[in-house]
Design brief:
Layout lengths: L8 E12 L3 E12 L3 E5 L6 H8 L8 E10 L2 E2 L5 H7 L1 E4 L11 H7 L7 H15 L1 H5 L10 H13 L5 E5 L7 H18 L2 E6 L2 H7 L2 E6 L2 E7 H6 L1 H7 L10 H14 L1
Helix pairs in contact: 3-6
Bound molecules: adenosine-5'-triphosphate and magnesium ion.
Length: about 270
């Protein structure tokens, strides 16, 4: 059983602030830790800042006119803010982007092979890892000669994840793997995340709107609202938390409210009582 307390911290995000276009303050001081060998989830609704957090870590903000204006991000104790995404891959950190970006004109297998481009350990090792990916994603083995652009959304998500695995990462940043997929496929994708985590020891930091499924597979969760972390804890505790149940696990018919609404509502209620 994974025990976060006993693991070294791989990634540490400390009080990070992100501003887009010099004026739009999106992350308002985010701090989080990712232990080696765990599955850590960043949860929250549309526009909460999940993708921005992952992009801040992997240095993908510049192309979006975004900038980390405060705080620090370190990996194994070293600041990583000056590393470009390719250098980060060499350090063992790779991001699977939201909306699964495969090269549409390449076959599934060619896509997977592009994931191995930073490696220098020869074709036999790469063939072996291709088999490893196919073992985790049997569907990709079946579809390996198909052009990626013609595969289904679920297969493209698998292809993007498989490509990331081909770089033999220590940590995968996985943005919204459930996006646009039917519930059964979402479950399957998360089962594969768990299998890779357990089988290869790969550390995951994933961003998800689907709190329900993420908290069933993650070990630890951070709930993000409006650029701030409003709650964090072991996934099992968050699953049992009444506010999380009410506002994130889809147990109210009014849709999702904000934690801050609940809190001020409670305060008002206490005031009235
Ligand atoms: N390039 C950008 N320029 C300006 N504002 C941006 C940019 N990218 C994101 N934002 C804003 O930052 C906020 C956080 O966006 P982000 O994409 O990080 O949220 P998210 O939690 O990933 O949401 P979703 O679940 O919809 O993917 C939103 O208000 C969004 O409009
Ligand atoms: Mg997002």
């Amino acid at each position: 059983m994974f025990d976060a307390e006993r693991q070294e911290t791989l990634l540490e995000v400390n009080n990070v602030e992100v501003i887009y276009n010099h004026v739009i303050l999106v992350l308002k001081g985010i701090s989080l830790k990712v232990p080696k060998g765990g599955i850590t989830a960043i949860l929250g609704g549309n526009g909460a800042g999940k993708t921005t957090t992952l992009k801040a870590i992997s240095n993908l903000l510049a192309s979006e006119r975004g900038e980390v204006t405060k705080g620090s991000i370190s990996y194994r104790g070293d600041r990583i803010s000056d590393l470009n995404p390719a250098a980060l891959v060499k350090r063992g950190v790779i991001q699977v982007m939201e909306g699964r970006r495969c090269f549409e004109h390449l076959t599934v297998e060619e896509n997977l092979l592009t994931g191995a481009y930073t490696r220098g350990d020869g074709s036999a090792a790469i063939r072996r890892d291709l088999e490893m990916v196919y073992d985790y994603f049997p569907r990709l083995r079946e579809r390996r000669r198909s052009q990626a652009g013609y595969t289904s959304g679920g297969e493209q998500q698998m292809c993007a994840m498989g490509r990331a695995l081909m770089s033999r990462p220590e940590m995968i940043l996985l943005d919204e793997p459930s996006m646009g997929l039917a519930p059964q496929l979402v479950e399957q994708i998360f089962q594969i995340v768990k299998a890779v985590n357990e089988g290869e020891g790969t550390t995951f930091l994933l961003a998800e709107q689907n709190t329900n499924v993420a908290l069933r597979y993650a070990h630890y969760g951070y709930i993000l609202e409006n650029g701030r972390i409003v709650m964090d804890g072991p996934a099992a505790q968050l699953r049992e938390n009444p506010d999380v149940k009410e506002f994130y696990l889809g147990m109210s018919d009014e849709g999702r409210k904000s934690f801050r609404d609940v809190r001020s509502y409670r305060r008002r209620k206490r005031w009235l009582a």
